[in-house]
């Protein structure tokens, strides 16, 4: 029995006639399924249904094992090229000390250089909720300090007792080229 994502092969194809494409890629035409199976068997290959929704279904004579291997290779390459972007969170308070602020901004810059998105959160306790503008000032200052490395996805907004802002990394071509050059030299 064929799996959901895989095409039907040889005897799994349950139709009376198919549009056949031979191993060279040339169109043979509409032939009965039995004749198509015999042609595939004579050439030592498989009959694979490539377009089941067509009328009549399109089948191709090919080496199914090789086709499946190539498909897996393509999928693996596609997965390798996808970059998983993680979100790092940095929490601050509206009355953050200068040294603490600089330390947090340094961490944010490192995350942005590494290509991570950063969620900057300001937590308000008790009466601090009355002074939301202090938190907004801290977030605006963070945005200004990280200007060359990241840009804000949206303006700071309140979520419960937190005021949050997302920073997305900006990849500069000159930096990425310089990084590649240093890697190739070592």
UniProtKB/TrEMBL annotation:
All copies of the Translation initiation factor 3 C-terminal domain together span 86-169
Q: Which UniProt keywords apply?
A: Cytoplasm, Initiation factor, Protein biosynthesis
Q: Please list the residue ranges annotated as the Translation initiation factor 3 N-terminal domain.
A: 9-78
A molecular function (GO) held by this record is: ribosome binding
Q: How does it assemble?
A: Monomer.
Q: Which HAMAP family match?
A: IF_3 (MF_00080)
According to UniProt, the name of this protein is Translation initiation factor IF-3
Which source organism does the UniProt entry give? Acetomicrobium hydrogeniformans
Lineage, please?
Answer: Bacteria, Thermotogati, Synergistota, Synergistia, Synergistales
């Amino acid at each position: 029995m064929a799996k959901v994502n895989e095409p039907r092969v040889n005897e799994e194809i349950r139709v009376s006639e198919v549009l056949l494409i031979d191993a060279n890629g040339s169109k043979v035409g509409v032939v009965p399924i039995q004749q198509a199976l015999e042609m595939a068997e004579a050439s030592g290959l498989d009959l694979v249904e490539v377009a089941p929704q067509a009328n009549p279904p399109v089948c191709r004579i090919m080496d199914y094992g090789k086709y499946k291997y190539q498909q897996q290779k393509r999928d693996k390459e596609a997965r390798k090229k996808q970059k998983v972007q993680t979100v790092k969170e940095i929490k601050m308070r509206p009355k953050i000390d200068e040294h603490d602020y600089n330390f947090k901004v340094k961490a944010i810059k490192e995350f942005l250089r590494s290509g991570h998105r950063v969620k900057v959160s300001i937590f308000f306790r008790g009466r601090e909720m009355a002074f939301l503008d202090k938190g907004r000032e801290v977030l605006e200052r963070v945005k200004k300090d990280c200007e060359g490395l990241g840009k804000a996805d949206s303006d700071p907004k309140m979520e419960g007792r937190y005021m949050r802002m997302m920073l997305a990394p900006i990849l500069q071509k000159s930096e990425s080229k310089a990084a590649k050059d240093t890697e190739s030299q070592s």
